[in-house]
Amino acid sequence: MNSGSLHEFLVGLHERHGPVVSFWFGRRLVVSLGTVDVLKQHINPNKTLDPFETMLKSLLKYQSGNESGSENLMRKKLYENGVTNSLQSNFALLLKLSEEVLDKWLSYPETQHVPLSQHMLGFAMKSVTQIVMGSTFEDDQEVIRFQKNHGTVWSEIGKGFLDGSLDKSATRKKQYQDVCTWAICFLTTSEEVQKKLHKEVDQVFGKDPVTPEKIEHLRFDPDRFDDESAMKTFSSLGFSGTKECPELRFAYTVTTVLLSVLVKRLHLLSVEGQVIETKYELVTSSREEAWITVTKRH
Fold it and tell me: In CA terms, which of 14, 55, 78, 184 is 20 to 30 Å from 286?
């Protein structure tokens, strides 16, 4: 039976059989939990041998030591190919969502404070849900509902991270970043860096639209951040390191598209007197909302 995407298959399965279902995925028996209430009943990251924790550790790339290096390499290549194909086939969607953010910010008065974290969370949720699960999530209400459920799951994962039942190694922590938010935050703190980025974006795109081919000509240049304090900040937030998950390239590409669209048309400015304190969990985030203002480029 052709059930479409995995998401559509699971929705249909739960509609027919209830909130807890099982099915064979190849030779592996999989149990799917279809409601947040049921999920809460089964999350217990404090038990070392709890199967749900084992699944979470697998998702978060915590190795058990039972897999060979060749198996890990093969899996990584499969992930990388999947990320590459996804980026190529969904570039138009990423561009559309980035332009929606631009249009919203262009509509604001220049003195209006923009809730950066909130807007970037919405952008990230729309990007991921529409790319992975399709047109269902073009409906903002579906995205909001998904975001609430996602928050519940992420909170439970975070508890395991904080209480020690999930490994706290720095290399792992660095892999999870709110890249879009921090990239824009840092750009607002340095007018010189933003000028250099705008110059590069202008040289690469000119008045032409952002395209996958031209995006490849934009490169991260560490010399932009040659100030010692800036380099330390970027290192602590995970913009460096040798162990990168394949999804990190996906995040960087999404961020590059968004920044290219925004910087072409807008000056990104910090709010005077604002001090952004960081909160270190699975994702390094600001403790409170990060506010910015924007002005149009002429």
Answer: 55
CA 115, 117, 118, 120 dihedral sign is positive
Q: What DSSP element (H or E) covers 209?
A: none
Prediction pTM value:
0.66
Distance CA 221, CA 63 (A): 32
CATH of the domain at 104: 1.10.630.10
Contact 96, 102 (CB under 8 A): no
Domain span holding position 1? 1-42
DSSP 266: E
Spatial separation of the C-alpha atoms in residues 40 and 33, rounded to whole Å: 10
Residues 17, 63 within the same domain = no
The mean-pLDDT minimum among 105-119, 197-211, 226-240 falls in 226-240
Percent of the chain with pLDDT over 90: 27
Q: In whole angstroms, what is the distance from residue 165 CA to residue 53 CA? A: 9
CA distances from 63 to 49, 55, 66, 119, 164 (A): 14, 11, 8, 34, 16
Phi and psi, residue 86, nearest 5° = -65, -40
Distance CA 237, CA 179 (A): 9
Q: How does pLDDT run across 99-138, given as a tens digit for each residue?
A: 999 999 999 998 899 999 989 988 988 888 888 778 878 8
Residues 181 and 272 in one domain: yes
